[in-house]
Amino acid sequence: xxxxxxxxxxxxxxxxxxxxxxxxxxxxxxxxxxxxxxxxxxxxxxxxxxxxxxxxxxxxxxxxxxxxxxxxxxxxxxxxxxxxxxxxxxxxxxxxxxxxxxxxxxxxxxxxxxxxxxxxxxxxxxxxxxxxxxxxxxxxxxx
Length: 143
Prior knowledge:
The protein is an alpha+beta fold. It has two domains: 7-90, no CATH class; 95-142, no CATH class. It is built from six helices and four strands; from the N terminus they run βαβαββαααα. Strands 2-1-3-4 form a four-stranded mixed sheet, covered by helices on one side.
């Protein structure tokens, strides 16, 4: 992997929805601007991400090259910017679109384990807003 990465993404490699999104990003990342770190991989140490495993499982996290930690929709903005979709990033910063994406991502993050049939002890006490709602498509198709 090139050392020209701009953003590192900490993703759940056991989540089928997440893996689909990461697969698309890997395919589009022809310049090696993204460092992909699977938090479900054997030997992954959450200390390297300055977080706990539980925190990383609650919502997507990333880290910029300068060490700045980002999470949620901002991770997707940075990822899409890194692969050359700056116009899409610009759209996601518009006030109404930004608010809608934040709400949609929170619903997704709160329910992804349940929607992918992986709800176990991690779901205990994990607040949900729309337990019976249908899952959202990947952020690429939402944003």
